[in-house]
Amino acid sequence: MKDQMVKNEMAKSTTDELILANATLVLPGETRRGHVVIRGGEIAEIGSGAVPAGAVDCEGDYLSPGLIELHTDNLERHITPRPKAHWPHNAAIVAHDAELAGCGITTVFDAIRVGSIVEGPRGDYRRYARPMADQIAAMRDAGALKISHKLHLRAETCSETLIEELSEFGPEDNVGIVSLMDHTPGQRQFSDISKFEDYVCGKHGLSKEGFGEYCQFLYDLHDRLGARHEAASVQAAANYGAVLASHDDTTRDQVETSARHGIRLAEFPTTVEAARACHDHGIQVIMGAPNLIRGGSHSGNVSALELADLGLLDIISSDYVPAALLQAAVMLGEHWGDMARGMATVTRSPARASGLNDRGALEVGQRADLIRFAKRGNVPVVRGVFVEGARVG
């Protein structure tokens, strides 16, 4: 019976009209029982009352805007599933896309690093951004992808090739976000140098003996090129027409610099001081879903839940676990006693912060990017994913 229901639902999604009814609608500011009518890939009507004839009965499940992911390392995980094991990029892109669709993510800003190290102690920090962006576009144009993919360039200032790699992109690439990354050890995300040692030696296979040499190499690189690379990244974002983001702000002084650059998003500030300073400057704060679900940062930084309680958390990112995005939003909704507010951190808020005004809300005229989910125990379970009204998961 359920298999037939899914077949009927998929068939309806290919016609001019699809009605999803008897759902708990996650609307801006509230949740209530009702139905959504989809026509031409957009939300045409939102109503309540009896289930309309021909509608799909959602059995009381939540119906929310599709999730919007601004920062994820998931694509990199697919192209390098193990240290020094490189996967064919087209296959990795399709697998990444399918995984996100299955988690309810309907728009993703694929985070691609620009800025490589070609002569240093680590041999796996190679260039890949331009060909990867081309391959994502080619797979999208070929109709191989289920969800909407946009570009997020992670500009690594502590690198050798950043300016050259930035020059390979232009306004025609529709880069959505440029984030300023500085992974020089001993500050920001890795203020605790032992955490950086665990990360580099554990994940990337660097020997303990070579760790000190690697750190000194990075210090020298930062001193020589860091300021120049930061300025070039800010200018590149302006040239692309992209939203500018900071990464791992720790101090008020760092946030003051971000504000002078025109930064609008702060990814994963590491302290309450930095998050508060971001809000003082109108910079929206993004925190990681794994931090929220696990009850703290794996790097020993500020807790996402603490920032949520202080009113300093605006947007959630799945970071390195795509399925965490929905779970974290539902957790926040339950913690705040306001599911609409919790879900807004992964729908409307990231959409508006990234300049997307056509999606992220259950409102007439918006794209019909939707997710149907139910709660089973304390875990949300995805039961349907729609992109422009067509079922993709």
At a glance:
The protein is α/β, with parallel strands linked by helices and 393 residues long.
Number of helices: 14
Number of domains: 2
Rg computed from alpha carbons, rounded to a whole number of angstroms: 21 Å
Which series of helices and strands comes N to C?
A: HEEEEEEHHEHEHEHHEHEHEHHEHHHEEE
Question: What descriptive keywords fit this protein?
Answer:
about 400 residues, 14 helices, alpha/beta, 2 domains, eight-stranded parallel β-sheet, eight-stranded mixed β-sheet, hydrolase, Urease, subunit C, domain 1, TIM Barrel, Metallo-dep_Hydrolase, disordered N terminus
How would you describe this structure to a colleague?
The protein has 393 residues and is an alpha/beta fold. The chain folds into 2 domains: 2-63 and 379-391, Urease, subunit C, domain 1; 67-358, Metal-dependent hydrolases (TIM Barrel, Alpha-Beta Barrel), CATH 3.20.20. The chain has helices at residues 2-13, 74-79, 89-102, 129-141, 162-166, 193-204, 208-240, 252-261, 272-280, 289-294, 304-309, 324-336, 339-344, 348-353, and strands at 17-27, 30-39, 42-47, 56-57, 62-65, 67-72, 105-114, 148-156, 175-181, 243-247, 265-267, 284-288, 315-317, 370-376, 379-387, 390-391. Helix 9 (272-280) links the parallel strand 11 (265-267) and strand 12 (284-288). It is globular and about 70 Å long. The model is unreliable at 1-8 and 10-14 (pLDDT under 50). Its EC number is 3.6.1.63. GO terms for molecular function: hydrolase activity, acting on carbon-nitrogen (but not peptide) bonds.
